[in-house]
Automatic annotation (TrEMBL), chain A:
One of its GO terms (molecular function) is metal ion binding. Keywords: 4Fe-4S, Iron, Iron-sulfur, Lyase, Metal-binding, S-adenosyl-L-methionine. Catalyzes the breakage of the C-P bond in alpha-D-ribose 1-methylphosphonate 5-phosphate (PRPn) forming alpha-D-ribose. InterPro entries: PhnJ. It catalyses: alpha-D-ribose 1-methylphosphonate 5-phosphate + AH2 + S-adenosyl-L-methionine = alpha-D-ribose 1,2-cyclic phosphate 5-phosphate + methane + 5'-deoxyadenosine + L-methionine + A + H(+). Its EC number is 4.7.1.1. Pfam families: PhnJ. It comes from the Bacteria. One of its GO terms (biological process) is organic phosphonate catabolic process. This is Alpha-D-ribose 1-methylphosphonate 5-phosphate C-P lyase. Belongs to the PhnJ family. The keyword Oxidoreductase does not apply.
TrEMBL record, chain B:
PROSITE patterns: ABC_TRANSPORTER_1, ABC_TRANSPORTER_2. It comes from the Bacteria. This is Putative phosphonates utilization ATP-binding protein PhnK. Coiled coil: none annotated. Pfam families: ABC_tran. One of its GO terms (biological process) is organic phosphonate catabolic process.
Length: 285, 256
């Protein structure tokens, strides 16, 4: 039931147009951070207000909406964002990746391959990949405009000299179409290769930092690395305990108070669909 | 021979106040130019105008670029100028912390310029960094330590390594020995002299310390109130200064 006190998807039409312009600009300049006038949303910043505003701007009444948080549809955060759009936009919602036309996500990319009919919206806490070594915004902007990205490799160098390998495992920086260096939001680096050449549109929204960036379909996305320390999309070296999948990103769960643990798919929809199709892992009941 | 750097009529004002005025000179490959003068005479202003850190109000700084030959760096595009300043140019700051990343290891500091120009082999970068640490007399075993754990003299030598690792052709130095103990100064000067000689570097060294230019500079410019009042071969100017102010400058130092 749409709550009639609000415009469709909560934001007024003018605000949505402003956000759509930022999105279009982002799509035209893949990986470039477009400033936008972020609005107050009826939820705290840490809850993905950037993603929510982007979703609000792209949703239509015919869309089917899915929200994932760390791979799951049923966390408090995911449920409240899904409920928010059920109430303010009256759109259909789903937990099935294949049935969704707009998917808002925090920290994961679904395991199922996405299609040209889909839009993936990422919630972004810190959009600037150069921030940690160069705190001055004026300087990072100049570095982007002049393609001065040596600093990104200084970070990876420090990683290797400290840990013997590139220890960065989330928010692993990428180069987009050989031009902009981009923060993929805190997804595990296991997901990085999925961003490349993806059929779906990928939109990134940072609410507190007021930035939107985007990857149009089939964009070249390369994870930064060294020749002698090549990028690896690593994951826990186990099959899923529930569905037996060998190719999915796994969460490690502590299952009892004697230190017993098991590995299960972080993408719950993927795992449940596999189990329904008869796949069984070693820990499945 | 084409000058490596040809400075023509450089003028910089701070409001109505003169920073430096109408400075012109040529620097040939392999030459070291010293710029001396009392505090406030305009040395740093001139150096920063030449190195592209300040935009002069008038004048040209023509550098003999590898790609296009002599080019005015004041009017070239910013990307080109920034590229020069991390390849063919080097700048050694008086305070090492202005020229180093204090939160990054010594190896990362030296490697940054290599990565900035596209080197992507970790082992090579680390090897070159270790090599350069040794060349500036820092134990390569300190490669993963941060500069905050280094003495002042070591920080300054690290800054030099970080600058020279890409094989620049022109080095700008602003009071490189300022703030260091006398014995540390002597060691640093020896090191710089050796590097300049071995690498065939051209350099412009700003200092108020005549002992520094005596040791390092082939030629000398004396500045006063923003103007160059005397220029010539170092020994000539120091042993037989013509301008009354130069005489004063030299004699006051010789008395010390
Ligand atoms: N940023 C500035 N704003 C205004 N005046 C300045 C600035 N920097 C330098 N000056 C003035 O310009 C003159 C030359 O300064 P500087 O180039 O720093 O001399 P030096 O390096 O020889 O000590 C001095 O009178 C100084 O006070
Ligand atoms: Mg000075």
């Amino acid at each position: 039931m749409t709550d009639q006190a609000y415009n469709f998807a909560y934001l007024d039409e003018q605000t949505k147009r402003m956000i759509r312009r930022a999105i279009l600009k982002g799509l035209a300049i893949p990986g470039y951070q477009v400033p936008f006038a972020s609005r107050e949303m009826p939820m705290p910043y840490g809850w993905g207000t950037g993603g929510v505003q982007v979703s609000a701007a792209v949703l239509t009444p015919d869309d089917t909406f899915k929200v994932i948080d760390q791979g799951a549809d049923d966390t408090t955060n995911a449920v409240s964002i899904r409920t928010f759009f059920e109430r303010t936009a009256g759109v259909a919602t789903t937990t099935a990746t294949a049935d969704a036309s707009v998917i808002q996500t925090r920290h994961r990319i679904p395991e199922d391959q996405l299609s040209e009919e889909q839009i993936l919206v990422y919630q972004v806490p810190i959009p600037e990949p150069l921030r940690f070594l160069e705190p001055r915004e004026s300087e990072t902007r100049k570095m982007h405009s002049l393609e001065e990205y040596g600093l990104m490799h200084v970070k990876l160098y420090e990683d290797i000299s400290c840990h013997g390998h590139i220890a960065t495992s989330y928010a692993y920086p990428v180069r987009v179409e050989g031009r902009y260096v981009m923060d993929p939001s805190p997804i595990p680096k296991f997901d990085n290769p999925k961003m490349a050449d993806m059929a779906a549109i990928q939109l990134f929204g940072a609410g507190r930092e007021q930035r939107i960036y985007a990857l149009p379909p089939y964009t070249k996305v390369v994870s930064l690395d060294f020749e002698d320390h090549p990028f690896e999309a690593s994951k826990a070296d186990h099959p899923c305990g529930m569905c037996g999948a060998e190719d999915s990103y796994l969460d490690e769960l502590i299952v009892d108070d004697t230190g017993g643990r098991m590995f299960v798919c972080s993408d719950t929809d993927y795992c449940e669909a596999r189990q329904a199709a008869g796949h069984k892992g070693k820990d499945a009941a | 021979m084409t000058p490596l750097l040809s400075v023509k009529g450089i003028t910089k004002r701070y409001g109505a106040h003169i920073g430096c005025a109408d400075v012109s000179f040529d620097l040939y490959p392999g030459e070291v130019m010293g710029i001396v003068g009392e505090s406030g005479s305009g040395k740093s202003t001139l150096l920063n105008c030449m190195a592209g850190h300040l935009v002069p109000d008038a004048g040209q700084v023509v550098f003999d670029t590898r790609v296009a030959g002599p080019t005015d760096t004041v009017t070239m595009s910013e990307p080109e100028r920034r590229m020069l300043s991390r390849t063919d140019w080097a700048f050694v700051h008086q305070h090492a912390r202005d020229g180093l990343r204090m939160g990054v290891s010594a190896g990362g500091n030296v490697g940054e310029r290599l990565m900035a120009v596209g080197e992507r082999h970790y082992g090579d970068i680390r090897g070159k960094a270790a090599d350069w640490l040794e060349r500036v007399e820092i134990d390569a075993g300190r490669i993963d330590d941060r500069p905050t754990t280094f003495s002042g003299g070591m920080q300054q030598r690290l800054q030099i390594a970080r600058n020279l690792v890409t094989g620049p052709r022109l080095v700008f130095m602003d009071e490189p020995t300022g703030g260091l103990d006398v014995s540390v100064q002597a060691r640093l000067l020896d090191l710089v002299r050796g590097l300049v000689r071995d690498m065939g570097l051209s350099a412009i060294i700003v200092t108020h310390d005549l002992a520094v230019v005596r040791l390092l500079a082939d030629r000398l410019m004396v500045m006063k109130s923003g103007h160059v009042i005397e220029a010539g071969l170092t020994d000539q100017v120091l042993d037989d200064p013509q301008h009354a102010y130069s005489q004063l400058l030299v004699s006051s130092v010789l008395q010390v």
